[in-house]
Amino acid sequence: DARVTQTPRHKVTEMGQEVTMRCQPILGHNTVFWYRQTMMQGLELLAYFRNRAPLDDSGMPKDRFSAEMPDATLATLKIQPSEPRDSAVYFCASGQSRLAGAYNEQFFGPGTRLTVL
Amino acid sequence: GESVGLHLPTLSVQEGDNSIINCAYSNSASDYFIWYKQESGKGPQFIIDIRSNMDKRQGQRVTVLLNKTVKHLSLQIAATQPGDSAVYFCAENSGGSNYKLTFGKGTLLTVNP
User: Fold this and answer.
1) Helix, strand, coil % (nearest 5) of chain B?
2) For residue B11, what are the contacts with CB-CB under 8 A and spacing of at least 6?
3) Which residues face B72 on adjacent strands?
4) Are strands B10-14 and A31-38 parallel, antiparallel or unpaired?
5) Which residue of chain B is at minimal alpha-carbon distance from A34?
6) Cβ neighbours, 10 Å, residue A1
7) Which of A113, B56, B61, B74 is the most exposed place for a label (fewest CB within 10 A)?
8) Residues A38-77 pLDDT 10s
9) Do the Cβ atoms of A111 and B97 come within 8 Å?
C-alpha cells in the first residue's frame, strides 16, 4: 500500500556536521510537510510545500535549516551545521490538496531519529 | 500563543474497558480537529476527525466529541485492546488554516491485559 518513506531512519552525527534527511511522498500527493518532534515541544511544523513550492517555512531556523523539493518524488531537509539541540525525530508527511480552503489529511512517514553529539 | 493542550499525560486501562482521552484547545477560530495515534517508532496515524459544525462523530470503536462552548475535545475508545496502546494526539487546524496543524503534547494510553 502507498506510504511515505523516509531515509535514513536513524542518524547519529557530531556537532558541526551536515545532515540530510530525505522523504518520498505518496505518489500523486501534491503537498509535503516537515515536522520535528521532541519531548519538550511535541510536534512542530518546520516547512510546507505545495506543488513543490515552499509556502511556509516560518517554523524552520533559517540560518542552519533548508528544505527543498528537487522533484515531485523527493523532499529534502538539510541541517548545516548541526547542533546538539537539533536532536529530535523528523517526520515528513504528504497529502493531496483538493479543495480550496478545505483542510486535507496528512499521511506521516516513519520519521528520522537524529542524534547530534 | 494559542495552543492545544491535554489534561492527562498518561492513562492506564484494563483490556475491554472503554477509554476516554481529553484535550483542551484555545484557538476559537480553529474549525477542524483530528485525533492521531502514534505507536512507538512510528509516525502519527490518523484516527478520526471532526469539523466544528458537528459535536459528535463515530468511527469503528472510536468516537470524537467536540464541545465548542468550553473548547474541549475528547476521544472515546470502546472495548480497548492491547493494540490500542500508544500515544494519542489531538490536533487543530491552527486558526482555520487549510494546512497548518497545532498538536497537543500527547497522552500515553497503556492497556493492561
Assistant:
1) 5, 55, 40
2) B19, B21, B107, B108, B109, B110
3) B24, B67
4) unpaired
5) B100
6) 3
7) B56
8) 988 889 999 999 999 999 999 999 899 999 999 999 999 9
9) no
Amino acid at A58: S
Instruction: Copy the grid coordinates of residue A94.
Output: 504528504
| Cα separation values, B28 from A84, B21, B33, B56, B72, Å | 36, 20, 12, 18, 11
* E strand or H helix that includes residue A1: none
pLDDT per residue as tens digits for the range B7-65: 448 999 999 999 999 999 878 999 999 999 999 999 999 999 999 999 999 999 999 99
Contact residues, B window 38-67, toward A, CB-based 8 Å cutoff: 41-46, 49
The backbone torsions φ and ψ at residue B47, rounded to the nearest 5 degrees and listed phi first, read -110, -60
Provide the 3-class DSSP secondary structure of residue B95. Answer: helix
Residue A42 to residue B106, Cβ atoms within 8 A: yes
The cell numbers describing A111, all together, are 520519521
Q: How far apart are CA B6 and CA B91, in angstroms?
A: 11
Contact B81/B110 with Cβ under 8 angstroms? no
CA distance B19 to B63: 10
CA angle A20, A53, B50 (to 5 degrees): 95
